[in-house]
Design a protein that fits this description.
Radius of gyration: 26 Å
Helix content: 25-40%
Largest sheet: 5 strands, parallel
Distance between the termini: 57 Å
Number of helices: 15
Strand content: 15-25%
Number of strands: 14
Structural class: alpha/beta
Order of helices and strands: HHHHHHHEEEEEHEHEEHEEEHEHHEHEH
Shape: flat
Length: 389
């Protein structure tokens, strides 16, 4: 059974050695043997994966492997929560349009009232925190401006705040599919200088020196040329960005290979008072954004990558962040960041045709002084030209 798991990991490009696989088998025979699927997931990842950038690939292989085992074991019992979700109320377009938006302050006050008053679970209603229905609080239903609590999104993307701890994955910088065109576009952002030891043959100098020596060969050497452009990338991750993972990973891989000086940090929806390097440690290992500003000078080129699709409250209200209380607005932080890095660009993977219908995109474009381009070859080439000025 585990040999199949081993071969699937190798096929996915994760360089698992025979020794690492044997170490996992030894652990499974020891008192440390996992007692649940989740424990096995963490133990196997610890033993077999040595590079955090491959965690996402490991997760996909693990999910497929466990799915195969469950299929072989027969149909599992359907959880009661799944059955309840199927009962959620389906609203017509007219019913959705009739639902009232309450505004930020009223919405927060209503949530406090519900938390004080509610004593039991509810489903399919229009008032209490529950599943389905048209209440502004809960998950699995629809409301034009609500707070998602305790479960996954129903796909409407109308929540102005999310009450749950979500785990995001780092983008995979080893992704190769589709990176060639990204590389060609990123090469427009180049500033070459000769650095290091003189190890490259200087052909014009050699010809000139040989002629001056009356035909006696006079080899001339010079340092290699390197792209000296320094790039700081801030990548939006999680939520609606899950739809764009493949293209962002292709861009990330291309940037890794094209820029010698590249630093990458993550944020969610909008940069606030902190960013992080690794999504698996984003709760306990954050970098204060003020330290980011102090660490990277104005000679760095800033590229923000995100779909800019969020509640306008995240940009315009203190405390408007979808997953934490931000003392300052997202707009204030964006203005501060752009003031520090004058050479900045926002790459948006969302199709440009949908931009006019997203209020938050319009706000971000205005804050960026219209320096937002689509994540297409044309958009990238246009953006690299802007950053090269």
């Amino acid at each position: 059974m585990l040999i199949d798991f081993f071969t699937q990991l190798r096929a996915a490009g994760i360089p698992v050695s025979i020794q690492e696989f044997l170490s996992l088998l030894t652990l499974l025979r020891s008192p440390a043997a996992p007692l649940s699927t989740e424990d096995f997931y963490h133990l196997a990842r610890l033993a077999l994966v040595k590079d955090e950038t491959r965690y996402d690939r490991y997760d996909r292989v693990f999910a497929a492997f466990i799915g195969q085992l469950q299929a072989q074991a027969g149909d599992p019992d359907i959880p009661a929560d799944w059955l309840r979700q199927t009962l959620r109320r389906h609203l017509s377009a007219e019913e959705k349009a009739a639902l009232e938006k309450h505004g930020w302050d009223r919405l927060m006050a209503m949530l406090r009232e519900r938390l004080d008053e509610q004593k039991e679970r509810h489903a399919g209603g229009s008032k209490w925190i529950g599943t389905g229905g048209s209440s502004p609080f809960g998950h699995g239903g629809y409301h034009p401006e609500g707070i998602r609590i305790g479960g996954p999104s129903a796909g409407n993307r109308t929540a102005v705040k999310v009450w749950e701890q979500r785990q995001y994955r780092d983008y995979d910088d080893q992704q190769t599919l589709g990176t060639r065109n990204f590389k060609m576009a990123l090469r427009r952002l180049r500033r070459f200088a000769r650095q290091g030891a003189a190890t490259e043959l200087d052909m014009p100098g050699t010809i000139r020196g040989t002629a001056e020596q009356a035909g006696l060969l006079d080899l001339q050497w010079m340092p290699e040329r390197h792209n000296t452009v320094k790039v700081l990338m801030l990548l939006d991750v999680g939520g609606s960005m899950d739809d764009h993972i493949a293209r962002v990973e292709s861009l990330f891989s291309a940037a890794r290979s094209e820029f010698k000086h590249l630093e990458v940090f993550y944020f969610h929806n909008c940069p606030y008072e902190s960013v992080w390097r690794h999504n698996s440690r984003r709760r306990e290992a954050r970098l204060d954004t003020w330290d980011l500003l102090r660490s990277y000078g104005q000679d760095w080129r800033l590229i923000l990558v995100g779909d800019a699709s969020m509640s306008p409250y995240e940009l315009l209200y203190p405390g408007g962040s979808v997953e934490h209380h931000n003392p300052e607005t997202g707009a204030a932080w964006l203005q501060r960041i752009l003031g520090h890095w004058p050479h900045a660009l926002w790459l948006n993977p969302e199709p440009a045709g949908s931009w006019p219908y997203r209020q938050s995109i319009a706000i971000v474009r205005e804050l960026m002084h219209d320096r937002m381009v689509g994540m297409t070859l044309e958009g990238l080439e246009q953006g690299m030209k802007q950053l090269s000025k």
